[in-house]
Amino acid sequence: MAIRALWVGLLLMSLPFSVPAASAEDEITLSETIVRVLQHNPTIQAMDYRAGATAARIEQASQAPPWRVGLELENVAGTGVYSGTDRLQSTLSLAKVLELGDKPEQRTEVARARAGLLQDELSAQRLDIVATASRRYLQVLILQQRIALIEQARQTRQQTLQSVSQRVEAGRSPTAERFRAQNALDQTRLELQRQRHALEVARLKLANMWGAASAGFGALSADLYDLPSPEPFDTLKARLAANPRIAQFATEQRLAEARYRLAQSRRSLDVQLRGGVRHQRQTDDAALVFSFSVPLGSGSRAEPYIDEAQQRHRQQPYEQEQQRLALLSALYEAYQEMRYAYTALETLQESIIPGAERALRDYRRGYQRGRYSLLELNDAEQALIDSRLERVATAATYHRARFEIERLTGTAVQTGVSQ
Fold it and tell me: Does residue 417 lie in a domain region?
């Protein structure tokens, strides 16, 4: 539970949106989403039990071989003088295997290293789950924005249809233009319905992240277009060491060393001791019995295990370097996507969208005066719609890249965004 609380604190500091206070009870912010996921996600809840099972394995590994009690009967149910039980010999004994070479301690160290490895894996899984929840939150927000824009487009198409109808009734445009305008309006309405259905699916998928079977929340509350400027790549690169998979390298190294020491301990003999009491029925006498045994060739039989542990130990640095390079490459790719989206959104907001709005106003006035055709007006309308939708997609690209950077670094991306 303490680990989960730590993740709550870390991830709430890393939110990529400027999140205003909720104005209605059914609104949900990204911070509230992350808290719900960390507290109620079924996979995260199962992690506590996996960690508990690992603690039990450590205790199992520390156990020495148990004492064994035995009862041995001889000279019974035979033939001749041994046909009865007169010559029965019975032996009650205790036996114990003594493991030499600190085998229980070495097994325990291997189990502890595996437990540490599991903790690193669970930390990485938590980051992955939170990143997935953040992306699903973003998808709902994107669809909300798209629906709002398509609704604006529907209203624009409705106005265009009214203008075309007036021109047709005045005999200034052919009837076919009204059919074309009506078709454009109908297509927009269909797209609006499609996006609304997609929104319902996205909302359910988001609710599933915290174990809910229905989307019991209202509109999301976040500013999609609040994009802090990207930090220098070297700053993000330095944080890569906080990634649980990087931290896992040291744990894997300890595990390899523990396995090697455990393999070496196999060279030591395991001595089996046995002692007890033997009863002679024929004379009604008793005597003590003792025995011990050791396996032969323990040293030579241990060599393949030692060799395997050595080879695994030697391969670790190469595998770790390959994984480090893969993480670095993924971080650089996400960083470049974030930089591109940041500059592209500036261009869209400062140049492309205002230009498309001015062009549409000019085409609308020109169409009323007969200077432009309906086809040209429709093209201008579509250009504005596309540029506004591109703004949504570009902002989404930025936030997806930021989510990926935070997942890869395992730390908050410092932006100074107010929460």
Answer: no
C-alpha angle 328/334/337, rounded to 5°?
A: 140
Q: 91: which strand partners?
A: 72, 278
Q: Are 26 and 218 in contact (CB under 8 A)?
A: yes
| % pLDDT > 70, the chain | 92
What is the domain count for the chain? 1
The parent domain of residue 56 ranges over 2-409
> Distance (Å, rounded) from C-alpha 339 to C-alpha 342?
5
pLDDT in tens, 227-279: 889 999 999 998 888 788 887 888 888 888 888 888 888 888 888 999 999 98
The two structure tokens encoding residue 145 = 């924005």
List the one residue out of 103, 75, 70 whose CA is nearest residue 273: 70
Q: Flag whether 214 is in a domain.
A: yes
Max CA pair span of the chain: 134
If one counts every other C-beta atom within 10 angstroms of the C-beta of residue 165, the result is: 16
CB 33 within 8 A of CB 133: yes
CATH code (residue 156): 1.20.1600.10
CB 159 within 8 A of CB 188: no
Asked whether residue 418 is assigned to any structural domain, the reply reads: no
Report yes or no on whether pTM surpasses 0.85. Answer: no
φ/ψ region of 148 (left if φ > 0, alpha if ψ in -120 to 50, else beta) reads alpha
What DSSP line would sit under 18-78, residue for residue?
Answer: B-PPPSSTT-B-HHHHHHHHHHH-HHHHHHHHHHHHHHHHHHHHHPPPPPEEEEEEES-S-
Phi, psi of 152 (to 5 degrees): -60, -40
- Residue 286 within a domain: yes
